[in-house]
Write a structure and sequence with these properties.
Serine Threonine Protein Phosphatase 5, Tetratricopeptide repeat, 3 domains, six-stranded parallel β-sheet
Amino acid sequence: MPAVMWFRRDLRLLDNPALVAATEAGDGSVLGVFVLDPALLRPSGAPRLAVLYRTLRVLDSQLGGNLVVRHGSPGDVLSRLCQEVATDSVHCAADFGPYGAARDEAVAQALPVPLVRTGSAYAVAPGRVVNSSGESFKVYSAFYRGWRRHGWPQPARTVRPRWISARSDGLPADPELPDGLRLPDVGEAAAGQAWRSFVTDRIEDYADQRDRPDLDRTSHMSVHLKWGTIHPRTLLADLAPGHEVYRKELAWREFYADVLYHRPDSARQYYHGQLQGLPFATGSLAEQRLAAWAAGRTGYPIVDAGMRQILAEGWMHNRVRMIVASFLVKDLHVEWTDGARYFMRHLVDGDLASNAHGWQWVAGTGTDPAPYYRIFNPVLQGKKFDPAGDYVRRYVPELAELPAKYIHEPWRDPAGLPAGYPERIVDHATERSASLADYNQLREAHR
């Protein structure tokens, strides 16, 4: 009998243990299916949906036009498909996210055949790295040491199934996208090419230059890891001992997935619940501040450049993500959940675990031994990581002619602010003091 391969966040043919299992399960013929689940489509913004649809078109081409795409509840879709093709097994990679894990249990109950879960989107599946007491790690540094000790397998072997097909709803057209939005190349070949380019040209400088958005020395692999057009195990296999900083960045992704696995509520709720009592802007004030931040019109150049980058590319440099997140929470006093929700709608690499816990790390509500005092100064961050202002000029054309000495503090220019660029929405020093005072007051209340 043929096997069914249920693709989700593993839209590739290489290094795919679930596909290996599906190919070996029967006579070597496999039906590949992707379910357009309304529960996952609804919260996705147009940029991420466009990347998904384009990636599925590439996968369909790899399958010789045989990818079956259907709309609906996965349990219903797959149950009907099992009857249509007379299979005796459905294969997929394990999903450890809050929705995905519950969905897979429901699908397993609904199917007339076994749901076989092999591998995951991670080098080490969530829940496997534990301390000597068998408990999960709450701090990244300890998790990283345990993760390295645990280790991971080599990339899975390559199989060549005979792809069969069935009725398909076909892939939707791309959603309407904002004018000028530049999306990355997608698909397995694009992922491999991007990785080879990084390893050849930039990885040796990564440790020193990864925080420089003006130089853009990062790998840009996040979107490919999001959709599984390449697996982290493949990346880890190519890293040399001297590439420890990049290895640690991959481990952050695995750490946050592990945290979310143990605390599924932390996707949208405070990891440290006692900090939920912090005061935040509400009503029209919160709406106005969030809108100015989202439009890249706060009057702080590095913040505005980052927010305009996400609008232009559906992506933002990681250092700048931390800067803009800190500014929203600590300077504008808008709750981190609003920022996290905005990122998930606009980022093509939006990943629930990394996004939620990246925001909580910056907001000081997540996994960190002493977090809340970390408040990024947008001027100093700009001067340190974009010293000549090239990143700002790239995305904020109003400031293109400013000399470097004023690029991160345009209000200090004797000639005045350039035409069209806004005044500072708040004073950083004032708002920093207010945030610390709010935190100290809350801490005293909990003693």
